[in-house]
C-alpha cells in the first residue's frame, strides 16, 4: 500500500504516519518546516519505517501540484491512501473574525484538501483500491464556542466527504472522515490544536 499523509511531522498526522508505516505501507508526508520534517524522517528511519517526505505549504496551489507530482513519481502513478490531515483553528468571538482569518481557516482546513483530492483522483483510481480520509472535527457536527469559522470549514469537509464517497465509488475510491474532539499533542495553543 502507498499513502500520502499531509501534516505528518507532528500531532495526529505524526501518529497516522507511524501507524500506516507499521502496517507496512510506504508513506510520503509533507510539512511546511524542513528542519522538523528532517528530524521526523530520521526518527522513522531509526525505527525501520519506510517514510519519505517533502516540504509543502498546502495553502499554495503550486506547492500542492508539486507535491502530487512528487507522489506520482515516487509511487509510479498509483496511490492507495490519501489522508487530508493538516489544519488550524482560530478561536474568536463571531464578530471578531476578519476577512483574513476567514480566508486562512477555510483555505487551510478545506480548500487545499478538496484540491488535493482532485489532483489525487487519477492516482487513487489507478490503484484500483483508493481511500481518502479527511481528519475533520466534532466542531463540524456540534456547536462549540468561539470556533464558528473553524466549524464551518469542518462542516464543509464533512459534506464533501459524503459527495466524494457517492461520486467516486464507481472508481473504487472510498471516502471517509474521522471527527476527533480535543486531542492532546505537542502543539501548545488552540490556534494549532486539532479539534
CATH class: Alpha Beta
Q: Could you give the count of β-strands?
A: 6
Question: Which regions are unreliable across 5 or more consecutive residues at pLDDT < 50?
Answer: 188-195
Number of domains: 1
The CATH architecture name reads 3-Layer(aba) Sandwich
Rg, Cα atoms, Å: 16 Å
Structural class category: alpha/beta
* Helix percent band: 40-55%
Main sheet characteristics:
6 strands, parallel
User: Could you give the order of strands across the largest sheet?
Assistant: 3-2-1-4-5-6
Q: Look at the structure and name the CATH superfamily.
A: NAD(P)-binding Rossmann-like Domain
Beta-strand proportion = 15-25%
Average of the residue pLDDT scores: 92
Task: Give the SSE order as H and E letters.
Answer: EHEHEHEHEHE
Which topology does CATH recognise? Answer: Rossmann fold
Give the CA-based shape. globular
What is the CA-CA span between the terminal residues?
A: 28 Å
Number of helices: 5
